[in-house]
């Protein structure tokens, strides 16, 4: 966007005739238009070439942030941090450990801590996604990480159940900004042929973070106390929260909040304003078009204080939600993702208990945890590389999603049929490897099946849907099923069959008309323009590639059709008005 102002400054003409001014005005418009298109479509994150924050460095930053986020989730579930209640046996009482022991929490209250975190995450995700249209998304990540840091610090200083429950909810609020906005930034920064690969590297941090969190919580909690674990987490996240405010804000594709809105308005050709621009000099043209664009962009949706009106925010949110829910590709993708996540969530909760009951594993926790972590990391990376190798497109993504889920589900189903523990572990590991290959492709589809300005909301709502309808209800429902049939092998087999409907739903997506909408016109640009009666005509250079003729000014329009410009004549004398011929002048 800075380039637009530089072009305007360099193209300022010296004082001359109106024809020269209008010619320079047209040339300046021709120069500034590519700068907007380039900024909004090709290099949307606008990372300066001289900056240390290269695209790969940005990916690394987001991966570290994700690791810390999921390290926190793993740590609070670990025995070292979560702990256990105190017990009394035969008159001998032992003190509890961790959060549950210090606050004497029941199992229900201990489970509520996880629920409060999820409430904060799911409620705040669409809010941050909607705010990204009026506030710079990179700054929103800084706000979210600051809330996360303060809340994690508060967890360490909590003094009872309610204090830590509120802090856990705020941790979820802080994480919501990150999960909604980080993926679109990565999508903008990644090379076109490696987009799914970069997304896979990012989502690989989920199982890796959980695994590190289990170990971290056990080591730090047992040696230094559970409070110290939260303080260290806050210290690790603090530098990234600061960077969110101190770094030059990156611009997300499809979003033009703050200062960039005015530049976009100045460079956008608005019907009905062209004549005004052509009739003035270069300076007047730039200032008038900027003022008109600023009025168009701010008056309908801004209050007197300059902030978006709440009613307009709600109206825009419901409009975006309607558009999102009417997108058949998005709906099909999320429906398959819900069924997939239903199984994964139940596996992670009930897997160790089922393995202990069926195969009498003495170390079921380590077995299931190790398989999930290793296969999660390798499978997620493999899925991203595979889709890039196939050429990342929505149709190919659905092919990969349906195939890996179908085959992976078959391996998981077959694993629970085995009587041998080693046969079960081998088949289950292959199945997990295949089903985790979906992480990169499914998020690629969520990002590319909608226009750029809807990507944060798409990521937020897919996250909300897979949790509310997927892993959150799956654990209690599987528990109810087990209570009825009282056979873990049968329960696990029934659960594994849900992979097949997920594969079938994604298989339908292969035959649907899918268009990659990543390069569509941005939402802010269309909002800045008024609704014209007819579509603006394309510029001559867009048709022929030639430099267009300068637009005639108002003075030139007056003299059109005349061989010479009008020359002012002297005022006629009294004799001329009366029609008499004046006498010739007397010779001197």
UniProtKB/TrEMBL annotation:
Region (Disordered): 1-47, 277-308, 521-588
Compartments (UniProt record): Membrane
Compositional bias (Basic and acidic residues): 1-11, 292-302
Residue ranges of domain Major facilitator superfamily (MFS) profile in the record: 58-521
Residue stretches spanning the membrane: 112-131, 138-162, 168-186, 198-217, 229-247, 329-350, 370-390, 397-418, 424-447, 454-470, 490-512
Residue spans of biased composition, Low complexity class: 17-27
Membrane topology: Multi-pass membrane protein
A Pfam family it matches: MFS_1
Polar residues: compositionally biased ranges: 37-47
UniProt GO cellular component terms: membrane
Keywords, ordered alphabetically: Membrane, Transmembrane, Transmembrane helix, Transport
UniProt similarity note: Belongs to the major facilitator superfamily. Spinster (TC 2.A.1.49) family.
Protein name, UniProt field: Major facilitator superfamily (MFS) profile domain-containing protein
Lineage: Eukaryota, Viridiplantae, Streptophyta, Embryophyta, Tracheophyta
